[in-house]
Design a protein that fits this description.
By secondary structure, the chain is an alpha+beta fold. The protein contains 10 helices and 10 strands. A hairpin with a 2-residue loop joins strand 2 (148-152) and strand 3 (155-166).
């Protein structure tokens, strides 16, 4: 058997602080996350204690203002943190991405008073967030959502059902998009809803093909009353906030996808150098060597694409098209690479004795969440050719 060890990804990081941060994340991932990943995913167990640890380490608010408990890290660093976490366990990497997405509205569109009151505990106080846009009848067509918020004095009363909510039922706060006006995108407003609000409940988690440790559930709002000071932004501004958040969130999904793909490649290379057939390691056979080379090349291309988009965002330049490209390419890459990793392992790849089959099942959902890859193609095409003629 080979004594080859998986080498850390060679990363281009802007500062010594960022290098130290990635070393810390890699250490936490190797000690606290990866060893339990297979067992806990199989059992469908959400690792809340890991998120508490990440919060204590300052890793749940990396791209936000330090004045409110954030880490003031550029997106090109934050996304590489997500990649490391997702490589160890997608439930954790995706969970951090969703929490960051749920914090986005308040961090970017909240009033100063709202940010001072809520952000420190959201970013560094051990809380966990969820983002509520999709509904049973409005997924890709998010602007047709039906959850309604009605003004009642100084309060708003929210009623409706949200669907496919990551952390549904366990989140401490929900960023909820609800209709306060007429049909269409201009009638939607954002609200910050406490997880223990009266009238808020969650259905049983969905039974999913993969990512079983991350609860995904419908969230019901039955006359949930929130004060007006929990409205984020102006009335009717919610859909714009939601789309802006998704541009950033898609980069998080892209980074998570590359993390899963990298983990699958590492597994495939290790197995190929250890497994012997016909008197040689199977890595000696050209057909398999070329397969590994293609997998590695696709991963590097995906990493470069999401980092290029992140650097545009960090520079304050438009990046929506590049975010859609990164989400599309990286998640498609994760699907291809994980399928190929199963093939490298042969029959063993189809068993739960190795993580390759779990990576393959998990990769599929990344092509769907935060805008299907068909939607990403529509976004990219609109940037290239303008809106569709109707």
């Amino acid at each position: 058997m080979s004594d080859r060890e998986t080498q850390p990804v060679e990363r281009q990081l802007p500062t010594d602080e960022a290098r130290d941060l990635l070393a810390l994340v890699r250490d936490i991932a190797q000690r606290e996350i990866a060893p339990k990943a297979a067992e806990e995913e199989d059992a469908g167990r959400f690792p809340r204690e890991v998120f508490t640890l990440l919060s204590e380490a300052g890793l749940l608010g990396l791209p936000y203002d330090p004045e409110h408990g954030g880490g003031e890290q550029p997106y090109e660093v934050y996304l590489q943190v997500l990649e490391e976490l997702a490589a160890a366990r997608l439930t954790v990497g995706l969970g951090v991405s969703v929490h960051t997405l749920a914090s986005y509205a308040l961090a970017t569109h909240g009033t100063k008073q709202q940010q001072v009151e809520h952000l420190p505990v959201m970013l560094g106080g051990g809380l966990l967030g969820a983002y509520c846009l999709s509904e049973p009848s409005s997924g890709s067509d998010a602007a047709s959502l039906r959850t309604r918020a009605v003004r009642d004095g100084d309060d708003w009363v929210l009623s409706g059902t949200k669907a496919w909510i990551t952390h549904g039922g366990i989140a401490d706060f929900y960023t909820v998009m609800a209709r306060t006006g007429a049909d269409g995108p201009r009638g939607i407003t954002a609200f910050l809803v406490p997880g223990d609000a009266e009238g808020l409940s969650a259905a049983l988690p969905e039974k999913k093909m993969g990512l079983k440790g991350s609860p995904t559930a419908q969230v019901h709002l039955d006359g949930v009353r929130v004060p007006d000071d929990r409205r984020i932004g102006e009335e009717g501004q919610g859909f714009g906030i939601a789309l802006s958040a998704l541009d950033s969130g898609r980069l998080g999904i892209a980074a998570c996808a590359i993390g899963v793909a990298q983990a699958a490649l590492d597994q495939a290379v290790t197995y190929a150098t250890e497994r012997r057939q016909f008197g040689h390691p199977i890595a000696d056979f050209q057909g398999l060597r070329f397969l590994l080379a293609d997998m590695a090349t696709q991963i590097e291309a995906g990493r470069a694409l999401y980092l290029a988009a992140a650097r545009l965002k960090d520079a304050g330049r438009p990046f929506a098209k590049q975010a859609a490209m990164a989400k599309l390419h990286c998640t498609d890459t994760a699907m291809r690479v994980t399928v190929d990793a199963v093939q490298v392992l042969g029959g063993y790849g189809y068993t739960a004795d190795f993580p390759a089959e779990r990576y393959m099942r998990e990769a599929k959902v990344l092509q769907i969440v935060e805008g299907t890859n068909q939607i990403q193609r529509m976004v990219i095409a609109r940037h290239l050719a303008g809106p569709e003629s109707r």
